[in-house]
Design brief:
By secondary structure, this protein is low in regular secondary structure. 7% of the residues lie in helices and 8% in strands. The strands form 2 sheets. A two-stranded antiparallel ribbon has the order 1-4. A hairpin with a 2-residue loop joins β2 and β3. The relative contact order is 0.16.
Length: 122
């Protein structure tokens, strides 16, 4: 809930002056810029507030692949590769790698995770 209510989080109805298309999450999409796309809601058709983390498609089909924290802490490696470096999307396989930053460089969201163990798997 803290992530959803943060001022950098966007509840989106459209993009580039057009209504959001189905392939981009119509009718409504939640954009959380400091998390990888696979960790954000793709489309919203209903909302349920709960005190427990719900089971997601990723967690159900591949629980060891990406933890809840995988997109905020580059110091937690994926079970099969390091997350300490990566290439920019679209830069090509021969491009140089960059060092990712904690919370993808969004230092204003650090307080959201202050009480969490960012090394823990969920």
């Amino acid at each position: 809930m803290d992530e959803a209510l943060h001022p950098l989080t966007l509840l989106t109805l459209g993009a580039y002056g057009e209504a959001l298309s189905e392939k981009n999450g119509a009718p409504l999409r939640l954009l959380v810029p400091w998390k990888y796309g696979f960790k954000s809601a793709k489309l919203i058709t209903r909302m349920t507030l709960t005190d427990k983390q719900p089971l997601s498609n990723w967690k159900e089909t591949a629980p060891r692949e990406h933890s809840f924290y995988s997109s905020v802490n580059p110091n937690i490696d994926h079970p099969r590769w390091t997350q300490a470096t990566r290439r920019r999307i679209g830069a090509g396989v021969l491009s140089s790698k960059i060092n990712p930053q904690l919370f993808n460089g969004y230092s204003k969201v650090t307080s959201l995770y202050a009480q969490m163990d960012l090394r823990r798997e969920c």
